[in-house]
Amino acid sequence: MDKMLSGKRILKFVIVTIVLILLMGMSIILGYTNTSIRLSYEAFTSFDGSNEHLIIQTVRLPRALIAASVGASLAIAGVYMQTLTKNPLASPGILGINAGASFAVVFVLSVFSVSSLSIFTWVSFLGAAIAALAVYFIGGVGRQGLTPMKITLAGAAITALFSSFTQGILVSNEAALDEVLFWLSGSIQGRKLEILVFVFPYLFLGWLLALIMTPMMNVMAMGDDVAKGLGLKVGLLKLTVGVIVILLAGDLLQLQGRLVLLVLSFLTLHEV
């Protein structure tokens, strides 16, 4: 029975991987500019500097890779949050990650007029970490400790708090609103491959940690009491999950803006 279940999981993984590759290929081949499979292949094997080749290399390929990275990171973070909170609707935003990272970027851009990508990355990390730690601390107050319900309520409160701070800054600073509007609306259009290269080490670290933590998360899905009975340090495990979500969600602010909006590459085929 176990071998049969394992085989089905592998088959599902292979099918999903094939579908993902096909969608990425469609996003590279199809678009407003007329191209073909052969032309797309030649753009990488015999680049001639034509408009079609430039669009494929500098616009469509980065967009497809970034969309796939964003989707993978959001999926992993979402599954881990759903397991941690026992809430099937959970997402990275449930820990206030979105709101914390967005507020930090808006704050430094408005107050210090920062425009450096590296600074934005570390600032978004810091904002996401502060929000997650605040949720962890507030959710852990009380006799019962860190429960799924308390995490959810604390996350909603921190999200509302940081979102109100962000809106307050934007209302009082119209110049900042114009500069961060693209970030807050959320899009992968116009993103360069250099951005993905810059944040990929952090994403890869998050993916690797998530893979290592998978067996323990399967135990966590059965409940805290069962996990404790099997010798798992539940508190440390939950903190590690928070770190993984910060790694995966904090970097996405650089790739496609507001995290709650997932933009798949095959939905932007009409643009170029």
Automatic annotation (TrEMBL):
Keyword Transport: yes
GO cellular component: plasma membrane
Listed GO MF terms: transmembrane transporter activity
Highest rank taxon of the organism: Bacteria
Annotated InterPro entries: ABC_BtuC-like, ABC_transptr_permease_BtuC
Transmembrane segments: 12-32, 64-81, 93-113, 119-139, 151-173, 193-214, 235-255
Region forming the signal peptide: none
Keywords noted in UniProt: Cell membrane, Membrane, Transmembrane, Transmembrane helix, Transport
Subcellular location: Cell membrane
Topology class, membrane: Multi-pass membrane protein
This protein's record includes keyword Manganese: no
Main location: membrane
GO biological process, one term: siderophore-iron import into cell
Family: Belongs to the binding-protein-dependent transport system permease family. FecCD subfamily.
Protein name, per record: Putative siderophore transport system permease protein YfiZ
Gene, per the UniProt record: yfiZ_3
